[in-house]
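Input.
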Amino acid sequence: MSTITTKDGVEIFFKDWGPKDAQPLVFHHGWPLSADDWDAQMLYFLAQGYRVIAHDRRGHGRSAQVADGHDMDHYAADVAAVVEHLDLRDAIHIGHSTGGGEALHYVARHGQKNGRVAKLVMIGAVPPIMVKTADNPGGLSIEVFDGFRAALAANRAQFYLDVPSGPFYGYNRPGAELSQGVIQNWWRQGMMGGAKAHYDGIKAFSETDFNDDLKAVSVPTLVMHGDDDQIVPIADSAILSAERIRTSTLKVYPGLSHGLCTVNPDIVNPDLLAFFKA
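Output.
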């Protein structure tokens, strides 16, 4: 397996496919998944001639199940370590859900100042901030995320069946075509990771305030979101993020779920390709 070791001693797994002289695409996965969640994109863009890279976040997938560092600062620093190890330049970073926050944090804090980033894509992403606060009255109550933590601690295996079977892919909607394989693959990826990383990661994706990062982004950015996203409601995420990134374009998908990259790659992938080539 391809791995690097970060400055604080954490082993991070990554995939690196395609010509080394091609433009790199760096994919950032959602919680509590792994680089495997990008299969439908990595195969597609590899066939389009790109170099495609994806890592497993610390504590997730095949990366080390460490007890600490499960916050956006460490996540972004880990990405920077992979990027520097591979010496990626002119890269496009694509993040889904929690990975959208991670990609944004990396670009704003590391990638732009080092001149390594060409563009950014955030899909169903968690910024600006998910939890309800005085400054974010449209956010979700802290009790929602406390419920996630309680369910994870009580029976993580069942929780990781319930989420993809219901709201993540919109399989709880009338007439939805449920894929047992997709549900089981979500469960497989989740259970590969560490319970401590996933528990702490709930705070990272729900309580991190990304507003300074949004203001700092200067590269062309595509914000994509399904308007039937039941995990990261669009009104308090993509709509606000697109307003705060001065170089952004917002693309809303009517009726699509949080898991649109897996369920609707025939729609998402061509739109990504058009943005990459623009």
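The chain has ten helices and eight strands.
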